[in-house]
Amino acid sequence: MSEKIETLTDATFDEHVKSSDVPVLVDFWAEWCGPCKMISPVLEEIAEEQAGKIKIGKLNIDDNLDVTRRFDVMSIPTLILFKDGEPQVRLIGAKPKGALLEEISAYL
Amino acid sequence: MPDASPERRKVVIVGSGPAGLTAALYTARAQLQPLVIEGEPSSTSDQPGGQLMLTTDVENYPGFVDGVMGPDLMGMMRAQALRFDAELRTAKVSRLDLTPWPFEVWVGDPEADQPTFRADTLIIATGARSLMLGCPNEDRLLGYGVSTCATCDGFFFRGQHIAVAGGGDSAMEEANFLTRFADKVTVIHRRDQLRASKIMQERAFANPKIEFRWNSVITDIMGDTKVAGLGLQDTVTGEASQLDVTGLFVAIGHEPNSSLLKGQLELQDNGYVRTFDGTTRTSVDGVFACGDVQDDYYRQAVTSAGSGCMAAIDAERWLEMKGE
Lengths: 108, 324
Known about the structure:
The complex is a heterodimer. By secondary structure, chain A is of the alpha/beta class.
């Protein structure tokens, strides 16, 4: 995995998302989810290309149920964009890179 | 892509499920340098790898004694095609023109003056996708309790009561799979018997967590922010009722991904591509179709792969005849 992508946990989530001075896109995923695997390389590309404008974090839902429940995630992959710790955009399901960038373009 | 003249290829394959990747393997080994336009990421079956990307155990693909995970099988098929230098492009075809030859293929902007590729032969392997119910609130609650992917979302319904709509093999597979998480799974089927194969029926009937609501259709999905229940109607008595569930998995069947082909080649009344004389030939000379987009009857990974092989051989012979 790209070093630009941060692994988040129930323990580190709040601090990471609130203290960031740029928006954080959080990928709720799991090992057993095919579409999650498919968007993984797309997120790595975005993390590289948009470095400095946005951060990307991955949260494994199997291991981190607290945060997963707090945001009512019921389908994966779900991507939530946080700004100043608050959720702004929520994307459900895998999407091509172009569509994904368009959905979060206002925050780039 | 301004002014770039379209790249000409001997074989362009649209789709990358078992049919498309087998066609790629065979045409690559025949030194035809196939280009596979594999699709784009999505959470529906309309994605690289196709419907098997949304399944778990595939128990009926020959050679895998203990079964194989759907995404793993597709990963292997992809790697095998790449080993023989098939070229794969993660993109979606946006438009086809089958009137001129070589055939014209657009990726990206369908209004662009120039096509992206010209293809001497075209192999259509675009597959099929899940049908949705089309009832009120289905779209709004998709991802909030309504799901088309049991393997992706079953996890979120641990200890709950959920419903599966459908009566075929995929519905039974999903229902069985979902009992790993849910306390109770109610299968809602519009008829009084299942379409599913014997083995899948027996498994579902034997599963103590699965119960059936026969002769029932879903008329509404309730819930403000997530699914809270379903409105049902009995197809025999017309009686309306409610079912308190927190999730609904839709598995009511498939439709072919053939919209790109409308008006371009002959489709059957149900939208599937018509192929001729037990081959993969279509109504347009030089265009071949394989896999679920032309098969509304067998629809198996292994029959798709088989017809992908047929399409590759049909395309290869066609090119030979043409003296290419």
